[in-house]
Amino acid sequence: MAHETGDWTLTEAARLIEEPQHRLIYLCEKGVVEPDVQDAEGRGSSRRFSSRNLLEFAVALRLRDLELPAVLIGAVVRVLRAFEAAVGREIRGFRLPESLRAKGAPDLRVVIGDGQRLYFTLGAGAGPPKVYGGIDLDDLKEPKSAARSRPKLRLVKPATPQARASGGDFGGPEGSRHTRVEISVSRIAQDLPLHA
Amino acid sequence: MARSKTAAVVAGTTRERPAQPAPIDPAVAALLDHIAEDLAREYVRLMESAAREDDADVSTSRDRKGA
User: Fold this and answer.
1) Which of A60, A118, B38, B66 is the 20 to 30 A CA-CA neighbour of B16?
2) Chain A within 8 Å of B53 (Cβ-Cβ)?
3) By CA distance, what is A91's nearest residue in B?
4) Most confident region among A22-31, A42-51, A173-182 by mean pLDDT
5) Whole-number Å distance between alpha carbons of A21 and A11
6) What is the per-residue pLDDT across A82-117, written as a single tens digit (0 to 9) for each?
7) CB nearest to A25's CB, from B12, B28, B35
8) Is residue B26 less than 8 Å (CB to CB) from chain A?
9) Going from the N-terminus, what domains does chain A have, and what CATH number goes with each?
């Protein structure tokens, strides 16, 4: 690693996150992870990755393990990048994954509710996390042609405590009724062996 | 001499298989960015709240020592 934000080759990145190189290449070629340090642009040029890229790989690969489509994974990575930029405008020095590894950092999670909606949750301490998003996964698929009308996008409000109570204690803060998949971005960040 | 796909994989290059970014509808992209902004606001709020609690703990600790 050459500088503060990380500079890893493909081989080094694959070794660090204990994944085969071809899985990382797949995510790059799908445009899910864009190498921060250097992209491959031709013969003799190889990709080089930042610490943030390592977090993106790790999160993306957990989602791939669940056989979720690349476009959904790309959406998650996009939110992480935009989140980092937005927090960085308010908190100097905020950086992924380092800032999520700090003691007491809020817990950022990705939730797929009922196999159909994408949510993010953010919480700290004992209080319930707040829920954001609720994008229909169908809306993440390829852009519709101009001739077809695009379905209206909408954010779904998290279920109220009363609604959650009527559905039992299963649904989590976003109110999923039958199934939910939850991935902790913060925990993945904390477990990255960046200083190994 | 043409390079084999295996060689390209080892080097981590995309010469033989150009990158094909997953397309996202611009409206969806805007929605994702909006979610990120909301998450960021909440993150900042939580961090500020934690900082205030830390300050209060320090003040309480000082008061006890001073008493």
Assistant:
1) A60
2) no
3) B44
4) A22-31
5) 7
6) 999 999 999 999 999 999 999 889 999 999 998 889
7) B12
8) yes
9) 8-191 (1.10.1660.10)
